[in-house]
Amino acid sequence: EAQLVESGGGLVEPGGSLRLSCTASGITFNYAWMNWVRQAPGKGLEWVGRIKSKTDGGTADYATPVKGRFTMSRDDSKNTLYLQMNSLKTEDTGVYYCTTQSGCSSGSCNWGQGTLVTVSS
Amino acid sequence: DIQMTQSPSTLSASVGDRVTITCRASQTINSWLAWYQQKPGKAPKLLIYKASTLESGVPSRFSGSESGTEFTLTISSLQPDDSATYYCQQYNSYLWTFGQGTKVEIK
Question: In the predicted model, what is the mean pLDDT of residues A86-112?
Answer without folding.
Answer: 95
